[in-house]
Amino acid sequence: MSRKIQTALISVYHKDGLEEILQELDLLHVKFISTGGTHDFITSLGYECETVEDVSGYPSILGGRVKTLHPKIFGGILYRRENESDKKQVKSYDIPSIDLVIVDLYPFEETVAAGGTEEEIIEKIDIGGISLIRGAAKNYKDVLIIASKEQYMPLLELLKENQGFSSLENRRQFATEAFKVSSGYDSAIFSYFDNENSSALRVSLNDAKQLRYGENPHQKGTFYGNFDEIFEQLHGKEISYNNLLDIDAAVSLISDFDETALAILKHNNACGMACRPTVKEAWEAALSADPVSAFGGIVVTNRTVNKEAAEAINSIFFEVLIAPSYDKDALEILFQKKNRIILVLRSTEKASQKLQYRSVLNGALVQDRNVSVQTVDDIQVVTEKTPTEEEIKDLLFANILVKHTKSNAIVLAKNKQLIASGTGQTSRVDALKQAIEKAKTFNFDLHGAVMASDAFFPFPDCVEIAHNAGITSVIQPGGSVRDSESVDFCNKNGLSMVTTGTRHFKH
User: Fold this and answer.
1) Pair (244, 387) in one structural domain
2) C-alpha to C-alpha distances, 282 to 47, 263, 289, 290, nearest whole angstrom
3) Is 87 a catalytic residue?
4) Which of 138, 180, 209, 307 is catalytic?
5) How many CB atoms sit inside 10 A of residue 275's CB?
6) What pTM, to 2 d.p., does this model score?
7) Which of 6, 151, 358, 445 is buried most deeply by CB count within 10 Å?
8) Owning domain of residue 90
9) pLDDT tens column, 61-118
10) Could you tell me if 461 and 495 lie in one domain?
11) Are strands 100-104 and 7-12 parallel, antiparallel or unpaired?
């Protein structure tokens, strides 16, 4: 059923964008009721505006904590226009009919993020505003609710198109948005008070983007989050569900490297990676690890892509390229492929959430993101032989890679280049054998290479297999009751081994 707006209650924190709405409402002869600063803003523009205090008969009290909380205000919002009993009570108590409510809540999250004091944060918990939102949204059959500044423009468009009228469908849509706002607001407040105690899980994410499908065409897929806050897409087709999974893995991996690095990922695992003086050199070294798997993969680097690098990368088909910036002539080359996705990584910080969530059974698992990166100071030499300086560099390089590889995982590396990896195996021995076989396939000499394991060795079989393949140094977390067996084998056969004390399972 269609409803005409005759009276609007307006109480907002953000005034930007409000002037146009007021102008349009005034043209439609809508009466204004408002509070405090919003009332001053409206009257400063030359519009007549009744105060909430005039309507309720009560002043704003308790330092502004109580302004709109009054039966005459909420009665005007909540009364059912076609309910005879409600109509009689409204008339009896002289309650005005309020058809439009415009609210923009106190910036609670922003105040927390800015490091506000406890007192400042508490005072940014909106009471009247959130109550107005809930009341108006509950009575969407009769009332139109605008619950945030993000809805100012849709409201303006509605007013212009329908001359102050709204349909039941319109009001229900805005009510849905209103409950989205209120639920997110309450989730933020709960998270602040819970203070990482994890007593309950309340996650609020906006900006829903419907994807073509999920992991497979028969699955529905949706991304919740502000992609544009992290990336600028310069070129290419619509990003898919699987693209997003790989992009997340790629950014997480490259963020752990400070020197010039490039990685090629496939199905969330690196199939090629190298650190080199230039992006082109890093690309060539990364590609050589597995040029077969690289086809159709995700390429990521932490340096500007210049013309020389672009010419080299352009030689094969890939889905996505991610870099902090691109030279103009590089983009001219990369844009040659119509569907190729070219992304500028704006912020690694905003790309990395503090917590990771995974749905399981009838609930969810939540954990801290694994941000642990081992350095020279974190390793302990447990063998008689000490790794060389170059081996230590390779061990630390491989240890980062294994952290970002699906378990059970083994990574073989040499000269800061991924030689091969064994990923997602049910046995660590199988993971190692897979890596060795892959290295042989692409004609790598494993003599002098290093091995990284994401977890300890329960038996000495892996170090024995590695030794027979030519590997000279090993990095692993340690912690097995049988660590000594692996260490003893290394001592007897001239291998060096270091432990980190940090496991990097990635199930």
Assistant:
1) no
2) 65, 8, 11, 14
3) no
4) 138
5) 22
6) 0.86
7) 151
8) 3-194
9) 887 788 888 888 889 999 998 889 988 998 998 889 999 999 999 899 999 989 999 9
10) yes
11) parallel
